């Protein structure tokens, strides 16, 4: 139980760190994605506290769908490559949840690994986008 708490704590540190960095150094797209990431992460955390496991699984799918739709809207609005990659990763995340729901499979280690790696990939996209926006802004200021 102690190791699980430590993993969750480290996950939240990564999420908060990426979002704070995006808010401080990023542009409008990065800030909007940071808010979306925080909102969806809080929703996932609250859903995990629900006692009904079936409702929990359906709720995860719904939140992933909303997150993907939000990313898609922002990708169309801002047209930056890193956001397109984040949308594709989120589509894989949605498919993962859908597969486990439809197949009535219990969440296993493969699910946890894939879920966490995909989430990490979305955070990395956000960080790359933040660094690119920061670099663009510094170059523009130097001129």
Structure description:
There is one protein chain. This protein is an all-alpha fold and 143 residues long. The chain has one domain. 89% of the residues lie in helices and 0% in strands. The chain is built from five helices and no strands. The chain has helices at 2-25, 28-48, 53-78, 81-102, 109-142. The termini are far apart. The model has no long low-confidence stretch (mean pLDDT 93).
Protein topology:
Blueprint: H1 2-25, H2 28-48, H3 53-78, H4 81-102, H5 109-142
Write a concise keyword list for the protein shown above.
143 residues; 5 helices; single chain; mainly alpha
Give a brief outline of the structure.
With 143 residues, the chain is mainly alpha-helical. It has one domain (29-138). Helices cover 89% and strands 0% of the residues.
Give the CA-based shape.
globular
Report the count of strand segments. 0
What's the Cα radius of gyration?
16 Å
- Main sheet attributes: strand count, strand direction, barrel closure: none
Number of helices: 5
**Average pLDDT reading:** 93
Strand content: under 5%
Number of domains: 1
Element pattern in H and E: HHHHH
Oligomer: single chain
Q: Which secondary-structure class do the elements indicate?
A: mainly alpha
Distance between the termini: 54 Å
Proportion of helical residues: over 70%
């Amino acid at each position: 139980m102690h190791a699980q708490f430590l993993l969750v704590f480290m996950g939240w540190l990564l999420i908060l760190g990426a979002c704070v960095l995006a808010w401080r150094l990023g542009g409008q797209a990065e800030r909007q994605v940071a808010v979306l990431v925080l909102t969806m992460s809080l929703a996932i955390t609250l859903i995990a506290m629900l006692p009904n496991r079936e409702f929990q699984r359906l709720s995860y799918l719904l939140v992933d769908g909303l997150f993907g739709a939000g990313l898609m809207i922002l990708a169309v609005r801002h047209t930056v490559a890193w956001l397109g990659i984040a949308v594709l990763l989120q589509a894989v995340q949605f498919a993962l949840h859908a597969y486990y729901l439809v197949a009535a499979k219990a969440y296993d280690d493969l699910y946890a690994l894939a879920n966490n790696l995909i989430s990490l990939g979305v955070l990395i996209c956000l960080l790359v986008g933040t660094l690119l926006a920061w670099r663009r802004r510094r170059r523009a200021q130097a001129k």
